[in-house]
Every structure is written in C-alpha cells, then in structure tokens.
Amino acid sequence: MYSCGPPFFEAALSCSLWKTAYTATTGRDMISRRSMMAGSAAFGVSACAGQPTEYTGPEVTRIQIFKERRELQLLNNRSLLKSYRINLGFAPVGHKTQQGDGRTPEGAYRIDRRNPNSRFYLSIGISYPDANDLAYARANGLDPGGDIFIHGTPQRWVGQPDWTWGCIAIANNEMDEVYAMVNNGTLITLYA
To answer: 167 an active-site residue?
Structure first.
C-alpha cells in the first residue's frame, strides 16, 4: 500500500483500514461494491474514493507540471485544455532521489496506472522511478522510492501547502476531471 501523506497522516477510517478490517473479520480478500456501500452506510463512513466522470473532449496527449509555479497543465498537442493549482512533496525543491526525501520527481515519465479506490480520493500513477533513477539510486546505495501519483486531497489537508511525500495533490473535484481526461501511457513532464 502506498502512502503519499506525511508520516503522521491518519484517516479516521480510511478505505484501506476498512478493507483490512473486513478481510480480517471475514477471511475474504475481495468485497463487492454493494457490500462496501452497505457496510459503509451501516457504519456512517463517508465515501472513500471519487466517482470518475466521463470525458468526451480532445485527447490529453501530455501533462506538464511546473513545480515552482505549483501548476499542472493538461494539453492536446500544443493546446492547453485545463490548468490546475497543485501541492507537492513536503520538501519540493530538487529531483526525487530517495524514498522519504519529500521531493517530487523532475523529468519525463508516463502515466502508468490508475487507482479508483485511492486513500487520496482518486489517483493516477507516474512511472517514477525510471531506469536513470534506479541507476542513480543503486550507484549511491539509495532506495529511490516510488508510488508517485497525481491524486486528490483529503479534507484534513485542504489549504495546507506541500503536504505529500512527493506526490502531486489537487482538489478532489479537479481530480475527477483529471482522472477522466488522462489515459494510461500519457506523457508527463515535471519541471523544476
């Protein structure tokens, strides 16, 4: 399980805790959406993840992240489709080189996975570390870390600057749009 939040981040009853408790008490690894919804309602748990919306506009061919400006841009070739304000890792200056450094990577990567059940609303994964990141880490005896995502923002962190462990956080309603618009394989370039 990945964790983009600070080490002291504790959700009152996050999806992962709910799923762990369910598995421990029932012995079942998978639960149906209906079971999850019924169980959540019974215990008064709010929704754990967003509901992706449908997008029918121009294809997002690339994503640009401007760390210093705290901006995420979705583009179709050279045309700007949408722009969002972002939060980064708790130590955002510089390229991520090791797990726990609080930095957000810099360079060119791909969107390589999606998580509709993220602890951070919805999330899309970034292909960090790449071969260069791994080689640098090995040469320096470091663990490069991983599990870097673009994701939503839990209520506890709304309005707080640069609170992740290296991920890119946006507002939950904006994450609905990004999740719907961006496909796996999309190029993402992160600039200082």
So the answer is: yes
